[in-house]
Design goal:
211 residues; mainly alpha; 2 strands; cytoplasm
């Protein structure tokens, strides 16, 4: 591409990088900053270059632009210059960090470090999938438990009513005196709290238990 040139406002250059550098140093116009400022993608960058080629705006005007940008129309996708090398420049390169010497841990190369990162990301993804599976399993268990619990409460209610009706007066004293121990009271209170908690959960999440 040594025989090809890129047009700036006043000069021709052999590469996009040289053009950007010239615009920044000589005209205080930073293409890089403009791309980041407006978050331009591939098509946005092409429209920007063609807009500048077509309108030949001042640096002051370009630096003062805020959204919405004036090059949004699709008409700016049409090249102004034939074989414009600036349009062939990969705008994603402007989003990459500047290359600096970097020492990877444990003597790893860059490619090895990337592989390690990918493995770490894969492990996190698998862990997330496993956690989701466990959550679904727990939800199913809770749903089944709640259904069984409701059914058992109904059965126990009927059974308890019959049993209490059959108790003799002298049997009542023996039966209830057996609950005088503190530990039994504690368990009964815990059961009551658990029962009310389950009941409240079922009421708040009735949609889960609908068939």
């Amino acid at each position: 591409l040594s025989h090809e040139t890129i047009a700036c406002l006043f000069r021709l250059f052999a590469s996009a990088e040289e053009t950007f550098s010239h615009c920044k140093l000589e005209h205080q116009f930073n293409i890089d900053s403009l791309v980041h400022k407006h978050g331009l993608d591939f098509y946005g960058y092409i429209k920007l270059i063609n807009f500048i080629r077509l309108k030949n705006p001042t640096v002051e005007y370009m630096n003062s632009i805020y959204n919405p940008v004036p090059w949004e129309k699709d008409e700016y996708l049409k090249p102004v210059l034939e074989d414009d090398l600036l349009l062939q420049f990969d705008v994603e390169d402007l989003y990459e960090p500047v290359s600096t010497p970097f020492s990877y841990p444990n003597g790893l190369s860059e490619s090895t470090s990337i592989v390690e990162k990918l493995k770490h990301m894969e492990a996190r993804a698998l862990s997330a999938e496993a956690a989701l599976a466990r959550a679904r399993e727990d939800l199913q268990k809770m749903k089944q438990f709640a259904q069984d619990f409701v059914m058992n409460v109904d059965v126990r209610t009927c059974s308890s009513t019959t049993a209490i009706a059959d108790l003799q007066e002298d049997e009542d004293g023996v039966y209830f005196s057996s609950y005088g121990h503190y530990g039994i009271h504690e368990e009964m209170l815990k059961d009551k709290v658990r029962t009310e908690s389950y009941r409240d959960f079922i009421y708040r999440n009735a949609h889960i238990f609908k068939d």
